[in-house]
Each structure stands twice: as structure tokens, then as C-alpha cells.
Amino acid sequence: MDGSLVQQYFGKYLLQLDLGFKETGFFSRFLNVHYSPDSLEKRLKTIEHLGLTRSIINEIGHIQNLKELDKRLQNAWAELRFVDQIHREGFKDIHKFTEVADFTATQNSNAYAFQVTRINKSLNDEIVNRNPPEKRSGSAYGTLDAIHTRLDNPLSFYFWNALENKNNKFGKWKERPFIRCIVIVSSDEALQDPMIRHMSCQQISRSAASLVHRNFEELIWLPDLSNGAWFKFPDDPKSTLCMADWKDDPTHSYHLDEMYIHRRTVDLTEF
């Protein structure tokens, strides 16, 4: 891909990871989970005119430690994923920020501040850690009670640290008026199961409601390459709004038009 944006922005890091693998056998999660050259090239082309890619890539820095480099590449991928998403959502004036928030942007005259975080851990590890041996199955099959008994607690812990950490950081955000929004990017394939996805949305909502002081008004969860789930949190937790667009229907026109977004309200009281 000589001359491509992937080569321009990621070329030296890809070479470093390739050499690292040959010398040490280092397994790069960025290459094996996130990196798809054609998809990344397409995304970079979509957002290139925004002028944000270089500032995101610059945060990777000059890292010799392969594990740390891999982590920073995944973080950069998550931010590029996010910028692509809100660009398609119609946000304007997207700026990279350096203190408290990662980005600011506007939509329909509303000013937003975003914090982006990536969850790298495995849901299966949480299932093993939070359940007795006889309940360490991540399957979404069985009775509803059995599924919730096995998965509710692990799902809650899966999201909790990211949510709590970003909530605490937003407590330092003094700019007004801004809508503060946490963005959670994850890549665990288990979370793409429709039922587990729905249960995850329930746990995100419950976790937000359990915070003693909630310092954000909205949250976006991007678990795959769909448009994900967008939460809006009013003062009354019972009125939390969750709007999702999973792009599950292969016959729908949105598979031909990637700019198409059609969110539907998710009833979090179901299941």
C-alpha cells in the first residue's frame, strides 16, 4: 500500500511490529484484532479532510517497547473509529483536545466534550473471575434466569472501570455549557451476540445510575463496526434513553450506504 494513508500514518509502526514478531514472536493485538488495511484505508480517507489524524497518530510517540506500542496503536485506532463515527453522525467543528476531554465537537448548536476509552479485556475472563466453576459459560442459550445469573455480574464489571475512570475525569471539566459524553470502544466478539449486546446495554445503564455523582450526560458504546448504542442520561435514571443501530439486517440499504444511520430506541426493561 505504498503511497496510501495507512502507509503514511502507520508504516513505521507496522514495520516495527513486523520486525518485532520476527525477532521475538511478539503477538500484536493491533494487527490481529483491529488491523484491516482496506478498512483502515477507507476510514482514513473518510476523515482525512478533518485534519485530525496526524494529531491522533502523534500521541503514539516513539516507543521501543512492543507491548506499549501495541497498546498505543489500539488507542489510536479507537480514536479514529470514534472520529469516523461522529463525523457520520453529523458533528461539526471536531477538535482534538488535550486536557480532561479528548475531543470537542458541535451538533445542532450543542457543544459536546468527549472522552474516549478502549476496553481491551475479555468478557470470558470476567465470567471466570466472577462465577463459580459450574457457571463459567459465556453462552447466551438457556433460560433467561440462568443467563442473567451467569452474565449480569461479569458484564457489569466488564464496563465498570472504564465508566468510573472517565466519570471521575469529567468531574474536572469546568467548561460550560457542554454535553459531556463518554465513548467506550470494545472489540470482544462475544459482545456482538444480540442478547449479550442487549444485556450489556442494561448493565451500562445500571452502572451509570449507580454512580454517586454522574459527571456526564451521554455515553456511546461502539462494540464493533456498527453504529453502536447511544445513551442519554436525564436526572431520573428511569428515563434513560438507549438508541442503537447494530446494522444486523444484511438486506438493508445501509450496507450500501455507510453514512446511513438509523437508531431505534431499545427497551432496557426487556429480558
Briefly characterize the structure.
This protein has 271 residues and is an alpha+beta fold.
Characterization of this structure:
The protein is of the alpha+beta class and 271 residues long. 44% of the residues lie in helices and 17% in strands. A hairpin with a 6-residue loop joins strand 1 (92-96) and strand 2. Helix 1 runs antiparallel to helix 5, helix 3 (37-47) packs across helix 5 (66-88) and helix 7 (144-170) packs across helix 8. The protein is globular, with a radius of gyration of 19 Å. The mean pLDDT is 92.
Indicate the topology.
Elements: H1 5-24, H2 29-34, H3 37-47, H4 53-58, H5 66-88, E1 92-96, E2 103-107, E3 110-119, H6 123-130, H7 144-170, E4 179-186, H8 194-210, E5 218-222, E6 228-232, E7 241-245, E8 264-265
Parallel strand pairs: 3-4, 4-5
Antiparallel strand pairs: 1-2, 2-3, 5-6, 6-7, 7-8
